[in-house]
Amino acid sequence: MPVYTAEAVVLRKLDYGEADRILTLFTLERGKVSAIAKSVRKSRSKMSGQLDVFAHGRMQLAEGRSMDVVTSFQRLTDESLLAAELQRSAAAALVVEVADKVLEEHHPQPELFGLVRDALARLSAPGAHARMESLDFVMRLLAEIGYIPELQRCSVCGRDLAEADELGFSPLAGGVVGGRCLEPGLVPLIGRRAVKILRVLAAGDRDLFLRLRLSDDDLAEVETALESQLEHHLDRQLKSIDFARRIRPPRREPQPATAE
User: What is the mean pLDDT of the chain?
Assistant: First the structure.
């Protein structure tokens, strides 16, 4: 069987038989590939404990009839912190699930590969802010697949959002809506501060974004907008987003104003 080498990230795994493991790989050279790692779950295997979800490394594979066979693996990054912290695990799960959903078999996408690889590496770094890294990834992913939200003008009528008394976020409309286009009760409201944060993300100024001091409420509002945009355009609910929502701190309800 012809043998080839590829840089790859493990997106999904399925234990098979007594000791094998079927993997969904995102490779730089060949796009998404299905492969089997034989006897990898045996303790004496040289790849034992290596080929798990999130793993990034250099692989040697042999081409097979139904799927390729992993013959060797050399880890290129350390993903141990991803399994050690729940917020990091949730963010990393979003990265690999989204990649799995948007990729086609054997269709190389080097830009998207770099986005996925870098997101996992950043989430693995000591001191990483998992929720902010996740937001940065989602906005970059939306830009890569052509669904970045409209944040400067009303997504429906095109008017300047500065003229609107209230703003909302509508994935169906493609971004922020305001003024007469805002349908109360149908389009979730979004604050101007959250819109400003989204604009920083959309501009790709990662350093500025990571310097922002964001409260849990700020993060929750921006997450709600971007995750709804992502799920709408993928036309499916993502298990990783549902999990991330369940482990986040509860969002505080706005308190009514009180008289002095």
Answer: 92
Q: How far apart are CA 75 and CA 120, in angstroms?
A: 13
In tens, the pLDDT along 225-236 reads 999 999 999 999
CATH 1.20.1440.120 fits 129-247, yes or no: yes
For residues 227 and 144, what is the distance between their CA atoms, to the nearest angstrom?
15
For residue 187, what are the β-bridge partners? none
3-75 CATH, one of 3.40.30.10, 3.30.460.10, 3.20.20.10, 2.40.50.140 = 2.40.50.140
Q: What's the rounded Cα separation, in Å, for the pair 68 and 25?
A: 10
